[in-house]
Each structure stands twice: as C-alpha cells, then as structure tokens.
Amino acid sequence: MRTVQMTLDEELIxxxxxxxKKTGTTRSAFAREALYAALRYAKIKEKEQxxxxxxxxxxxxxxxxxxxxxxxxxxx
Length: 76
What we know:
Order of helices and strands: HHH
Helix content: 55-70%
Strand content: under 5%
Distance between the termini: 52 Å
Oligomer: single chain
Shape: elongated
Largest sheet: none
Number of helices: 3
Radius of gyration: 22 Å
C-alpha cells in the first residue's frame, strides 16, 4: 500500500473521527472504503449514461417487446 496525503476540511475530519471511533476502525480504513464506494458509484453512473446514450441513438420501437408480453408472469 502507498501512503497518500490529503487536505480535508476540519468539519469533515471531525465527522470521520466520530464514525471511526463508533465503528472501531481507522481513518485510513474508512477512507479506503469510502473511495471504493465512490468508484463503484462512478462505474454505475457511467453504465447508466451509456445506457441512456444507446437508447437515444436507437429508441425502442412501438411493439418491439410485444412478443414477450405474454411471457411475463405476475405473482399474486
């Protein structure tokens, strides 16, 4: 692992310190998990954007999914 220096607002540090104290972890572990979560979120947002762009390039046509409508099963 590499050591990385960051500059953070005092309020943010205080909020993080409260959480890590309650959870029994460290600032570094908390920051790593937060960064992994942010990366997962960014990947999801990127896929959603590509999905939107794909449908903008090739919109769903009327009746395109009609053959599948009878295949749906709705639980009661």
